[in-house]
């Protein structure tokens, strides 16, 4: 076997003729693996996260004063950093043992190593303090074994004939020079590079640089070049004359290649943000108190497998009945353990009882899953109980579920592996150790590593071969397309100060200057580039909205040309002379660049996207869309935007349940409504009269938060929770006290009503149930009812304006449902602690009495007109049309849009009509109506 060895050749392609000559290209990691196999030194891999946990125990046992404070504040990060230093010292050849006057950092590493190895070289502390070998230990072991083999005078056959080195072994850092020298002594022919080799022929390679303004233009240029080269006939059996060097992801370039019928390069960096690596962190975020309901909704909605059939939902970690039930419950009550949440469990239990023999196993699985999840989130782990055993226990359900689903699925297998490593780390940590949230997050990140991108799917082609580092280029001439030739900061590794370098050298290390190590990478890149005839660089001036700079290797090539020219031309001028714009390659009907040629076909001229002139949709008669029941929210949609009602209520189109979990003012409003209901019910059950105290209101608020606003309990939201609580207590004290002062007694809260509404449609009269809930109904001493609608809103002027202009349609609908001509109505603004009413005992502002009959007549007239139009197949979007007619859209500032709506309201009021602002900026259907995006 012959090996071509280079410091930067890991992951390189096999050299030409490898099948015939047995030559393989290897870097340091590959060579170590090969030698371990030949010398029977292979062992099971241990995940780096487990090694960090092992080293953490050794650090705690050593208790060295130098890292003590850092370890106490952040044990995981400190352990990871110290282990990196330890491995770097071992790879450099240092034996971390007692030595006089060691610098503090080296002495700390020596002290920790003694806990692992023992001062006398034996195991110290038993398996609990063992440190699994890493890459540096593998290298050390190989050197030690080869030294003993060479010293014995009886070399073992390694099966390696020749190692051709790209670099002089004595220029390599740490133990590498010694390893290669020992291989030579063991009978391997070591071919060293010739002095000055790698410089390349003068003038090679020819430089062609194309700089685009953005990645899209660059991708188009590179794809045209590759497609042009792919069209060239190649001799049968010959290797591709074109190589592609992709040092940036090729997602956009692959799209352009597919458009031209070419194979994708499939280069994309692995990342810790892949879906498979987010399952475990998401699960733990809902298993540890306080529970974030938004994260809980995301977990419930997580789909991990494609649907087995076209008409089925994708498969999630949570079975569909459980997912839908709990998501709907969260949409009603954004918390856990409340009535809506428990109703789901009751329904699933009833489904088991009513299921037949075939459906019963599935129903039982759904119930068991629901109960497990409910137990998890209603009794989450408290931060002070986060021991390894408790975390292992709480993730048992996820482990079982992943195993049952992940039969051969790569993502789920990766998620299972992530969980398995997490368990290994937990098993390594002391049983009494209590982990903090930050430490858990660090362990999860380390245990997951980086997963491959779903776009990293290269496709076979005979036109070119692809590599990702300049040093991996095959030295066979021809052309190279370099995609993404941007400057990247090279990893510097561990830096030691002068005193530490001296101490490590005394301990047997060979430490090279960081600049020397970086030069090895640079020389390897230049050697790869110099083996080509022409280098075609396609890059962008900006990437991810940030300016980029050319790769440093381009500057080296330019500097070599500037020095050879001898005219004092600087590097920037040389690069500029070889740089072109994408448009320079376009001629009369052809595109031509560096030997690649493509015929251009001009697309038909199209008009730029623009908003439609009208949002009204026309269709055939649709009597099937007439409602079977109505509520005020539906009536408001019919008045404000008939399309919104048609999509939501008529056709049943709804946003995903996960996006419907309340938050912000909507969530707090639901919470305070429930507090009012609880206070009234409690007082009625106890037969207590008079307003509740601030303590009683606060207790009711605290009891409802976990069920209805649990996100307020999350870390970092203490101020918001406290402010909201104080605001609610003060406001409700004012609410109940003012009612008492006005002589009003609450008779019902959240009372449901259902009344028959007769609509006089053009097609005939229709009776429709009109349903809803009245927030608060109170009566005076004479039995006269007052309906009060509670609002938690930041819009302090909206509801007073609706009341004073006679457009408080919701209040009119509530009053109509009572069938009492003497009924009074009003709003109570919970956030501001103010009544909006014509009753001076409640509201001292002297507001006019709301004409309930007129307001209700306006409502029914608007409903009738809307349903007549919908039945006839003409569906407008009045609210959005107002913006459109004013030359505005969803990007218009809200303050400007409000002025537009106010003008429209005044004009409609003058004609006896009404305008309802349907809040297009928050609408789920703005894309369907055409107000958002291109309607073409």
Placed side by side, the strands forming the largest sheet appear as 9-6-10-11-5-14
From the 3D structure, determine the CATH topology of the largest domain: Lambda Exonuclease, Chain A
What share of the residues does DSSP label as strand, in percent?
5-15%
Count the DSSP helices. Answer: 34
Under the CATH scheme, the architecture of the largest domain is Alpha-Beta Complex
Q: What low-confidence regions span 5 or more consecutive residues with pLDDT below 50?
A: 15-20, 119-126
Q: How many strands in all? A: 24
Q: What number of structural domains do the residues give? A: 5
How would you describe the shape?
A: globular
Radius of gyration: 37 Å
Q: Give the biggest beta sheet.
A: 6 strands, parallel
Helix content: 40-55%
Q: Give the helix/strand class.
A: alpha/beta
How far the N terminus sits from the C terminus, by CA atoms, comes to 64 Å
Overall mean confidence score, pLDDT: 87
CATH class membership of the largest domain = Alpha Beta
């Amino acid at each position: 076997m012959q090996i071509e060895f280079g410091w930067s050749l890991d992951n390189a392609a096999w050299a030409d003729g490898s099948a015939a000559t047995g030559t393989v290209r290897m870097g340091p990691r590959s060579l170590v693996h090969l030698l371990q196999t030949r010398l029977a030194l292979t062992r099971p891999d241990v995940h780096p996260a487990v090694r960090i946990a092992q080293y953490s125990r050794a650090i705690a046992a050593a208790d060295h004063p130098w890292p003590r404070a850092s370890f106490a504040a952040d044990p995981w990060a400190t352990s990871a950093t110290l282990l990196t230093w330890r491995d770097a010292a071992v790879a450099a050849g240092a034996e971390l043992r007692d030595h006089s006057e060691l610098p503090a950092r080296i002495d700390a590493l020596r002290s920790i190593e003694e806990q692992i190895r023992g001062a006398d070289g034996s195991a110290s502390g038993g398996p609990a303090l063992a440190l699994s070998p890493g890459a540096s230990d593998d290298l050390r072991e190989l050197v030690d074994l080869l030294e003993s083999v060479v010293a014995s005078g009886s070399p073992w056959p390694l099966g390696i004939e020749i190692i051709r080195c790209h670099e002089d072994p004595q220029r390599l850092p740490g133990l590498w020079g010694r390893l290669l020298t020992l291989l030579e002594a063991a009978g391997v022919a070591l071919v060293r590079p010739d002095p000055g080799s790698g410089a390349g022929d003068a003038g090679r390679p020819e430089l062609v640089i194309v700089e685009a303004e953005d990645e899209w233009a660059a991708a188009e240029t590179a794809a045209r070049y590759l497609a042009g080269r792919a069209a060239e006939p190649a001799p049968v059996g010959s290797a591709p004359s074109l190589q592609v060097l992709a040092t940036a992801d090729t997602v956009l370039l692959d799209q352009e290649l597919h458009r031209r019928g070419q194979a994708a390069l499939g280069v994309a960096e692995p990342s810790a943000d892949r879906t498979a690596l987010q399952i475990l962190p998401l699960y733990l975020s809902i298993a540890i108190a306080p529970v974030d309901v938004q994260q809980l909704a995301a977990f419930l909605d997580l789909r991990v497998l494609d649907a087995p059939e076209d008409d089925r939902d994708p498969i999630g970690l949570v079975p569909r009945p459980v997912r839908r039930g709990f998501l709907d419950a969260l949409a009603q009550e954004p918390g856990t353990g409340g009535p809506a949440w428990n109703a789901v469990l009751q329904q699933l239990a009833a489904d088991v009882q009513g299921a037949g023999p075939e459906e019963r196993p599935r129903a039982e699985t759904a119930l068991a899953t629901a109960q497990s999840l409910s137990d998890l989130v209603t009794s989450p782990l408290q931060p002070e109980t986060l021991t390894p055993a408790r975390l292992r226990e709480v993730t048992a359900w996820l482990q079982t579920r992943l195993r049952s689903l992940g039969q051969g699925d790569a993502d789920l297998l990766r998620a299972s592996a992530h969980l398995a490593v997490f368990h290994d780390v937990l098993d390594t940590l002391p049983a009494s150790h209590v982990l903090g949230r930050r430490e858990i997050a660090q362990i999860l990140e380390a245990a997951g590593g980086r997963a491959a991108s779903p776009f990293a799917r290269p496709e076979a082609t005979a036109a070119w071969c692809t590599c990702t580092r300049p040093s991996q280029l095959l030295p066979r001439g021809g052309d190279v397309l370099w995609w993404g030739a941007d400057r990247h900061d090279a990893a510097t590794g561990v830096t030691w100060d002068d005193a530490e370098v001296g101490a490590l050298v005394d301990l047997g290390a060979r430490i090279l200057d960081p600049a020397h190590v970086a030069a090895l990478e640079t020389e390897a890149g230049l050697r790869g580039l110099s083996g080509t005839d022409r280098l075609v660089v396609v890059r962008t001036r900006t990437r991810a909205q940030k300016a980029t700079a050319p790769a440093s290797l381009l500057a080296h090539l330019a500097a070599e040309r500037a020095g050879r020219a001898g005219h004092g031309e600087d590097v920037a001028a040389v690069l500029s002379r070889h740089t072109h714009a994408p448009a320079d390659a376009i001629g009369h009907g052809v595109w031509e660049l560096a030997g690649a040629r493509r015929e251009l076909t001009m697309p038909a001229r199209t008009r730029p996207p623009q908003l439609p002139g009208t949002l009204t949709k026309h269709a055939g008669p649709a009597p099937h869309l007439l409602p079977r029941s109505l509520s005020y929210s539906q009536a408001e949609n019919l008045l404000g935007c008939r399309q919104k009602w048609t999509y939501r209520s008529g056709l049943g189109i709804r946003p995903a349940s996960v996006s419907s979990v309340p938050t912000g003012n909507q969530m707090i409003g639901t919470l305070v409504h429930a507090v009012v209901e609880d206070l009234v019910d409690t007082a009625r059950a106890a037969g207590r009269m008079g307003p509740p105290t601030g303590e009683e209101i606060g207790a009711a608020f605290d009891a409802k938060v976990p069920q209805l606003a649990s996100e307020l309990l999350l870390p970092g939201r203490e101020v918001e929770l406290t402010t909201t609580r104080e605001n609610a207590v003060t406001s409700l004290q004012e609410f109940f006290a003012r009612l008492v002062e006005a002589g009003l007694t609450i008779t019902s809260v959240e009372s449901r009503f259902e009344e028959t509404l007769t609509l006089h449609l053009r097609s005939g009269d229709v009776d429709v149930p009109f349903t809803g809930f009245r927030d608060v109904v109170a009566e005076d001493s004479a039995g006269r009812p007052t309906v009060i609608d509670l609002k938690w809103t930041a819009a302090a002027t909206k509801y007073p304006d609706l009341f004073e202009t006679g457009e408080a349609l919701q209040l009119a609908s509530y009053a109509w449902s009572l069938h009492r001509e003497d009924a009074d109505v009003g709003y109570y603004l919970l956030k501001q602690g103010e009544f909006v009413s014509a009753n001076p005992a409640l509201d001292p502002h002297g507001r006019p009495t709301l004409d309930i009959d007129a307001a209700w007549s306006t409502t029914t007239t608007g409903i009738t007109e809307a349903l007549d139009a919908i039945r006839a197949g003409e569906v407008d979007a009045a609210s959005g049309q107002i913006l459109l007619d004013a030359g505005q859209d969803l990007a218009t500032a809200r303050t400007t849009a409000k002025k537009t709506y106010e003008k429209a309201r005044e004009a409609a009021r003058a004609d006896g009509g009404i305008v309802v602002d349907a809040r297009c900026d928050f609408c789920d259907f703005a894309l369907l109506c055409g107000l958002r995006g291109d309607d073409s």
